[in-house]
Structures are given as C-alpha cells and as structure tokens.
C-alpha cells in the first residue's frame, strides 16, 4: 500500500462504526466512510469535541451539522496551500490520500526538468487542483481540465494561495473525453497524464460518465496523446470494483504494451493515529516510462 504519511496539517485521528475522525488544520471533523466496517471503542476525547459532523441519510446523501467551523479555512502540504470548505456529499475540497501520488510524480518531473528537458502534463477530472499544483510547483506546464466551472475556479484560488498563479497552467472547463478527442485532432502531446475519474458523473452538457464503461476507452485515447518520450501515467479509482490489479491490467495493455516502461498498482491509504493502522482510500495505478 502507498501511504500518504507526510501530512502536518491533516490526520485521521481514529475511525469506527462507519465514520472517520479527522483533523483538518485545527478543526475536527467527523465524516462517514464506507470502508470503516469495524466497531471499536471511541476513547479519544476528540470524538466529543467536534467542529462539524456530516450525517449520512438512510435515504441517500446527508447533511452537515456545524458546531464551530468557519465557512472557509486553509491547510498546507509541503509548499502548497489549499482552501477548504464543507460542501455537498461530505467533501471539503481535498483528498489528502492523493499526496502520496503528488510526491511520486513531482519527483519524476523535477528529475527531468533538472536535466533541462521541459515536461507537459495533462490533468483530467482535475477537481480543485491538488495534482495540478504539485506538477506546476515541480516545474511542469499543466493543462487542467474539469467539467465543473466551480471546481476550476476553486483550483485557481488554490494556485493563488500557493503562490503559483504565474505558473504555466491552462484552466479549462470541459468534458474530459471530448477534450482529449480534440487534442488528438490538434496533434498536441503530453509527457505525463493524470486521470482521477469519478465513479459516476455528468459533463457540462449533461454527458453521462460511468467509470466501468468509459475508463478503458479513455485510457486508450490518452495513450495516443503521449509524447515520443513519455514520463508517467497515473490513474486513480475510488470504485470498489476497480482493484489495483484491474488498474495494472489496463495500464499494461493500453500503455506499457506500446511504450514499455513499468506498471505498478496499489491501494492508497492514510495512517490512523490512535490505532497505528492504515485506512484504505481507494487505489492508484502508475506507469513510468523508460
């Protein structure tokens, strides 16, 4: 398992009975987590000193209960700063477990740019920009694509908070599949591709996305966007059915069969302070070029 264990401003304090107790900066949040199927005693006093609690509804969805939480606040990871706010379906605007992937591809980018070779990265389903900012801070030029205008705006705000507004990033509100198809027609190429697709979603014009049906054809399309000397390809999955071995197989057949290199896939996770164990948070597949 790849573990995001370098955080200072974030931690999973404990988890039990379908919920995880988290510290986001100086604020304590309690949110549901479907992976937490165990029932252990809640001894840490912070279980009773919450700033906010997201209650899951038996009918689907849920709502926040606030005790003492600002509308927005900030946390940092290494040299990056992120603005957070609670919004629909329990999210805060950041997936901390992805930091383990940020560190991985940032190292690859720094090595190549240190050799005087430019790196161009495409970030699809780019959300609030954690991966985009990590790649830009490492020295890459980045094309950031997300179907949500609000998420792209949030990502730009995070770039400003991180002092990266002047970096070469193109911020695009677009359907990811249609954008890739247009890039192929335009003849554009990328050294690194990051893909963080949702399990289910809709494009800006109502296009339906189902990961089990759409993800492999999109990987095949994206392979055609890779440069003559590609550096990396990353795909993340929060869907239970897409285990690491599935991600590995897709990257092996669509990418490594044509470009060589190495494929790895693992669960990703976050350390839990109280138990010393690791909370699983999905899976990632990585392809590294030769």
What does it look like?
The longest helix is centred in the middle third of the chain and has 16 residues, at 99-114. The chain starts with a strand and ends with a strand. The chain has 2 domains: 2-84, Sandwich (Immunoglobulin-like), CATH 2.60.40.1180; 96-288, 3-Layer(aba) Sandwich (Rossmann fold), CATH 3.40.50. α1 packs parallel to α2 (130-138) and α5 (211-223) runs parallel beside α6. The model has no long low-confidence stretch (mean pLDDT 94). It has helices at residues 99-114, 130-138, 149-161, 176-186, 211-223, 244-259; strands at 2-3, 10-16, 19-24, 27-32, 52-56, 62-66, 73-77, 80-84, 120-124, 141-146, 169-173, 192-195, 200-202, 208-210, 232-237, 262-271, 278-288. The protein has an 8-stranded mixed sheet. The chain has a 5-stranded mixed sheet with strand order 2-3-4-5-6, with no helix packed on it. A two-stranded antiparallel ribbon has the order 7-8. The chain has 290 residues and is an alpha/beta fold. It is globular and about 55 Å long. A hairpin with a 2-residue loop joins β3 (19-24) and β4. The chain is built from 6 helices and 17 strands.
Sum this structure up briefly.
The protein contains 6 helices and 17 strands. The chain is of the alpha/beta class and 290 residues long. The chain folds into 2 domains: 2-84, Immunoglobulin-like (Sandwich), CATH 2.60.40; 96-288, Rossmann fold (3-Layer(aba) Sandwich).
Largest sheet: spatial strand order: 1-16-17-15-12-9-10-11
The CATH architecture of the largest domain comes to: 3-Layer(aba) Sandwich
**Rg, nearest Å:** 19 Å
H/I helix tally: 6
- According to DSSP, the number of beta strands is 17
Strand content: 25-35%
The sequence of SSEs as H and E is EEEEEEEEHEHEHEHEEEHEHEE
Round the mean pLDDT to the nearest integer and report it: 94
What structural class should be given to the helix and strand makeup? alpha/beta
Instruction: Estimate percent helicity.
Output: 25-40%
């Amino acid at each position: 398992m790849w573990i995001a264990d370098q955080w200072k401003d974030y931690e999973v304090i404990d988890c039990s009975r379908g919920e995880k107790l988290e510290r986001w900066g100086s604020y304590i949040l309690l949110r549901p987590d479907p992976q937490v199927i165990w029932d252990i005693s809640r001894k840490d006093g912070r279980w009773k000193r919450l700033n906010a609690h997201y209650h899951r509804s038996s009918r689907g969805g849920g709502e926040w209960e606030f005790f003492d939480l600002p509308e927005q606040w900030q946390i940092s990871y290494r040299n990056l700063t992120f603005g957070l706010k609670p919004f629909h379906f329990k999210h805060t605007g950041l997936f901390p477990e992805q930091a383990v992937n940020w560190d991985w591809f940032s190292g690859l980018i720094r090595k190549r740019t240190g050799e005087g070779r430019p790196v161009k990265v495409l970030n699809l389903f780019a959300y609030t920009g954690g991966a985009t900012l990590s790649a830009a801070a490492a020295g890459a030029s980045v094309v950031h694509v997300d179907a949500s205008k609000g998420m792209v705006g949030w990502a730009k705000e995070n770039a400003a908070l991180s002092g990266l507004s002047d970096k070469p990033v193109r911020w695009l509100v677009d359907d990811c599949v249609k954008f890739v198809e247009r890039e192929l027609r335009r003849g554009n190429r990328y050294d690194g591709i990051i893909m963080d697709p949702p399990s289910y979603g809709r494009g800006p014009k109502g296009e339906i996305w189902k990961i089990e049906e759409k993800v492999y054809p999109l990987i095949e399309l994206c392979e055609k966007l890779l440069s003559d000397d590609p550096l990396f390809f990353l795909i993340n999955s929060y869907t239970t059915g897409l285990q690491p071995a599935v991600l590995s197989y897709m990257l092996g057949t669509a990418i490594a069969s044509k470009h060589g290199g190495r494929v790895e896939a693992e669960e990703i996770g976050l350390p839990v302070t109280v138990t010393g164990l690791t909370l699983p948070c999905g899976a990632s597949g990585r392809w590294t070029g030769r």
